[in-house]
Amino acid sequence: MPTLLARSPITPAVTRAEGVRVRPLPRVIGADVPVPLRDGGHVPYANLDYAASAPCLEAVHEAVTRALPYYSSVHRGAGYASQVTTGAYEEARETVRSFLGAWRRSAVVFTRNTTDAMNLLAHAVPAGTSVVVFETEHHAALLPWKRAVRLPVPATPADAISAADRALRECPIGPRLLVVTAASNVTGELWPVAELARVAHRNGARIAVDAAQLVPHRPLDMTALGVDYAAFSGHKLYAPFGAGVLAGRADWLRAAGPYLKGGGASANVGRTTRWAASAEQRHEAGSPNVLGVIALAAACDALSGAWEALAAREETLVGRLRSGLAALPSVRELALWGDRAPRVGIVSFTVDGREARDVALTLSEEYGIGVRDGLFCAHPFVRHLLGGDDADRAQDRGAAVRASIGIGTSEEHIRRLLTALAELTAR
User: Could you give the count of Cα atoms lying within 13 Å of 264 in the half-sphere of its Cβ?
Assistant: First the structure.
């Protein structure tokens, strides 16, 4: 990075070195935005849909505001603004690498989102790679693979570990990849990533982790856990500016052809084309989403050091939410591994005699509460949890409601949801 960048207003006010301090929770924008009700009144919005997209952090907004006056092309410009923007872009890569606890030599490729990142990895795996994936996965991790063994929903974490071990042992000779979520986008339950990584490596396989629902709530240390690849989205991490990440071992990414072919991915173009040697440059063709990357790095920086406060507050809120739902006889929480399984702030449930869409619309229109309804881009898993018959599954009947909490969630939001559900089920 040119020395002039040290004086750039893009440089965050809190550096990574300072980021080891314990910090208070960052603040989100729009936590108290008023929303209309069916009766003509207004109430402050109770956003309980963080798992779909989280609002913007104030620190992220400030980082983008600092960067905008210097916005310019990256990597190929000689002007001051271009140097400043290039420095900020590459510093963001280092911030993300630190945030994920990735190996120093790991690739950090910026993508559009988790789905894009997983598709990039699917593009880069060597020919003939056997992929093992559970049917509990979000479609971003379930669908991209050309050659995949789908494992059924495991009854316990131990079953997940033994099933992965058995499937990897039975794969044909050649490259192998185990794909798992770190935290379920349906139930919030945490998966035994460290144990699954050990199983993968014992069988000569690599492990790729969908961390989209984990990193807004808990830290991920790729090195400590033995994770080979991790993917996540900025829009779930309080940085809704269209950036995502694939981080991990660089060799497969360097050996694969460019994910997109164009400027930046090429080292030299003539009658033949020589592609860039670095994994990042090879797979980031075209003008990148500079502001999205700066926003994502700012979110990583803001959350680092705040994990303890975030986890303690979230555990209190999700505990109150789950105990309140359990007290409502017509409400059934969806869970894979039982009430005591560790989880992040995501709770899905059904209401007896009510369609999920009707529940979600009523919560919005009468109480100013935002939740998600549907199958949450995890159709096989949600249908398994709902216990529908084959006809239901074939005709796409059945859905659930999902409430997910985040930094802007308050105790009043939880009380309002529980009160609304109690009134709704009493009608």
Answer: 16
Span 15-19, average pLDDT: 41
User: How far apart, in whole angstroms, are the C-alpha atoms of residue 404 and residue 372?
Assistant: 9
Q: Directed axis angle between helix 80-100 and helix 290-303, to 10°?
A: 40
Look up residue 16 and give its two tokens: 């990574």
Residues 181 and 51: their CA atoms lie apart, in Å, by 14
Is 367 exposed, middle or buried, given 0-12, 13-18 or 19+ CB atoms closer than 10 A? buried
Residues near 356 by Cβ (< 8 Å), separated by ≥ 6? 350, 373, 374, 399, 400, 401
For the annotated catalytic residues, the residue numbers are 377
Cα–Cα distance measured from residue 335 to residue 385, given in angstroms and rounded to the nearest whole number: 7
Mean pLDDT, rounded, for 307-326: 96
Return the DSSP state at 183: B
* DSSP labels, 48-61: -BTTT-PPPBHHHH
Answer left, alpha or beta for residue 173, where phi above 0 means left and psi between -120 and 50 means alpha. beta
Q: Which pLDDT tens digit goes with each residue over 375-393? A: 999 999 999 999 965 545 4
Distance of CA 210 to the CA centre of its chain: 7
CA dist., res. 425 & res. 427, Å (int): 6
Report CA dihedral (274, 279, 283, 288) to the nearest 10 degrees.
-110
- Record the pTM: 0.93
pLDDT digits (tens, 9 = 90+) for 258-286: 999 998 888 899 999 898 888 999 999 99
Alpha helices in 109-172 (DSSP H): 114-124, 139-142, 157-170
